Amino acid sequence: SDDIEDVSLFDADDDLSRRSKKSKIRHPVASFFHLFFRVSAIIVYLLCELLTSSFIACMVTIILLLSCDFWAVKNVTGRLMVGLRWWNQVDDDGRSHWVFEARKVSAQGSKTSSEAESRIFWLGLITCPMIWVIFAFSALFSFKVKWLAVVVMGVVLQGANLYGYIRCKVGSRKNLTSMATNYLGKQFLRQ
């Protein structure tokens, strides 16, 4: 007989509530890596032609950094820093469902993520894809077609995380909005 225990996704919440709130940043390693991979990919893109003449080495380095960023943000930093996560789930029928989840407010009503972490998370999540979009226009208008593929990967990977977390953040509000709209529509039709 196997003992199976249901464990909360946010195990760290229990530890955080017990810990004293000495620092504003409760997850310094997660905060560091949230920005490290993103900024490193941008810096490598900007300095690549100055440091080496090998396009392949630059491209592989940038794609690896972007992939590490995508994984870290989607699986670790979003959960720890702001309590949001998203994933794709495929049913037995083969239908794909996107799941967007936000951390529930704790029993004491206090937030378990700090303001500083939230700012770091959202600033990095919004700013870096915008920079990659600027790089895309720059590569397109300067006819650097070989760099366009790398820049498009940056836009897609970081844009996907941005889209996923925006859906997590406003997903519950969207449901409330649709419920309110349906209620008002029904009231209007009755009159």
Which regions contain 5 or more consecutive residues with pLDDT less than 50? 1-14, 16-23
Distance between the termini: 61 Å
Average pLDDT confidence is 81
Q: Mind summarizing the main beta sheet?
A: 2 strands, antiparallel
Spatially, the strands of the biggest sheet line up as 1-2
Overall, the morphology is: globular
How many structurally independent domains? 1
DSSP strand tally: 2
Give a verbal description of the structure.
- This protein is mainly α and 191 residues long.
- It has one domain (27-103, 112-189).
- Helix content is 69%, strand content 7%.
- The protein is built from 5 helices and 2 strands, in the order αααββαα.
- Helix 2 runs antiparallel to helix 3 (55-82).
- The radius of gyration is 21 Å and the shape is globular.
- InterPro entries: TVP23-like.
- Its main location: membrane.
- Pfam families: DUF846.
Give a short synopsis of this structure:
This is Golgi apparatus membrane protein TVP23 homolog. With 191 residues, the chain is mainly α.
